[in-house]
Amino acid sequence: MGRVLLLATEDVIGTSGLMALLRTAALHRYQNTLPSNNLDKQFPFEDVSALSLAVDRVYGPRGGRNTALRIGEAAFKRALFEFGPVMGIDDMIVRLLPWSVKLDRWGEILSGMYNGFSDQIIRLESDSDAVYWHVERCPFCWGRQMLEPRCFIFVGLLQESLRWLSGERTYPVEQTTCTAMGDACCTFVIGRTPLG
Fold this sequence. Notes:
This protein is of the alpha+beta class.
């Protein structure tokens, strides 16, 4: 999945932008050789966090947020193309379910993928208004200390997955807690009502 993240970053900011980020993040080893195109756990959380921090450093707080959201969106598209059938997330049956069932089922599928193919620990809760993603081991803020939640790559990934699932509707996704702020987990709240 590290390869997907790096290629998605390149999709958004170009090759020279990716090289600049890798230099800023001290991830020189990926400048000439990307991680393998498989689901092995070979892209450590420290590297994901360093890349996320580099986005903020290079683009600033506001520009970093927007760039990270776009990287997350591109990462979902790439992951769906590369690994969707293997991971069961390209399942047309899920897309045909009524929305009231689909959002919860989609959360189970996507969180199961992350729990199985990464070292993230994700648990879900839901109520009539929202689905709550609790990420106990978040790679985007791993080892960092921050004053506000900034795991925008993951927010973008969730937003794009919902657009794909819903047929291009936009749903609110907000990060409300962050381990880098001292919270027990990073919490992402997905509203059940589309925007607009």
